[in-house]
Amino acid sequence: MPSSDNIERPRAKENVESNPTQKSNTIRLLLPLIVLLCLLLIWYIITYINLFPAYALPSPEAVWKSFQEEVRAGRLVNDIIASLWRVAVGFVVSATLGIPAGLWLGQHLHARQAFVPMLNFFRFLSPLAWIPFAILWFHIGDKPAVFLIFMASFFPLTLATMAAVATIPSIYFRVARDYDYKGMELLTKVTFPAVLPEIITALRVSYGIAWVVIVAAEMVGSQDGLGYGIWEARNGLRLDSAVCYMIIIGLLGMGIDRMLAQLTKLPNVRWGYDR
Amino acid sequence: MTDKHFNSRLKLENVSHSYGSVDVLHDLNLDVHPGEVVVLVGPSGCGKTTILNLLSGFIKPVSGRVTRQGIIRTVYQQDGLFPWLTVSENISIGLRSMKDPEVRNQEMLDLIQLIHLEGFENHYPHQLSGGMRQRVELARVLAGDSDILLMDEPFSALDYQTRIRMRRELVRVLEKRHRTVVFVTHDIEEAAQLADRVLVLSNRPATIRRELHIDAVRPRDLTDPAVIGAMKEILTELGL
Questions:
Q1: Backbone φ/ψ region at B57: left (φ over 0), alpha (ψ -120 to 50), beta
Q2: pTM of the model as a whole
Q3: Which of A34, A97, A202, B236 has its CA 20 to 30 A from that of A53?
């Protein structure tokens, strides 16, 4: 379960205990900061003593300079928006198709038997293998990248939703039956909320895949975007710029995952993570 | 709506049931009178739950006749509350048939009060103790216009003291909202404290070995002579 965030239950006692909580919060923020600073320091020392030639490993200052350059030129912001847009579109399309598909498959044994091998096949087929087709079918621009994001996230999302539905405790359906839930109502009021915590987890996992794939997709099928930025940097032998893009990619990926993680704090899915 | 239970009718006639080649019930007759609390006890695996499933209509008997009339609700052994709904949302599932929102709200207030969970309306099941959850289940099956309650070892997952408290709760709640109850348990104390009539079942295929009427008023203390007497008889019948 993806929960490093400890949620406190709503209890009246909380105020009394606010001091220890505050202290553990400070530690929680401080520890990763220390690791980060150590890493920067090591990086700095390695470049300072010229362990590797400057063109092979840029120094922190060079990266910082190129970051300022990229921002001033407006390219970085433009690339960020392009990548975010593509991931968002591809991801939303695969969620709107994949979640219902998973719900349906989870409820029908024969459909599962029919489709699961095929779905698994495509899940294990790296989305990057589709690059030649993506470019042939969709040429250059947003579309091939969106297609690749879709291919990367649709299959894991569908399979995870399906597996979640297939393992809903039968007691919920017994109760639903006792109170006359049928058809669409059964789906929206019982089946869907019963798997929502797992769907949120699946969304986070498949978003992670999508974010990894966008970089590769943009290296070949696009003329802007974060992946394209790295490719450009390579072509110009500007590894300082490449590192700058890498940092942005990592930070944005983390940031969006944090946002998705907020979904796990919704009161009606909390039960799925507290067990 | 307290007198609704007079509508209830629950009857098994010459019912036999088997799963594949395993005979579970053999020629069973059971007539549950309106408003009566019938407790079924018997060795584990003797088919107690099968009887409840037949009564609720979840399964059909291989042979024999099941008559049922009235709205039947079941409290299950496992946690049957929906964890994604709050206490009041879970209870309102039992009020689905009530159309008037005003009446529904009033009924909800009454039920929350009845199970003493004021202030917990917006809590989720995982934030409650086992006993509180079972009280919510109780409220849900009592809600609205149910006539018959089927209870499948509802307190067996609770600790001993909570179990004793829940029995008292059940008696108190049924005092205010009469229902016909069929209660399955392996707990002899529970049977002796709750039942108007105890049916002791035999090993598989289950038949009724003994029928025991207990007339003492409820709530009955564990040390009540009537309870102890009944326990003794049940134990003897079970060969313990």
A1: left
A2: 0.83
A3: A34
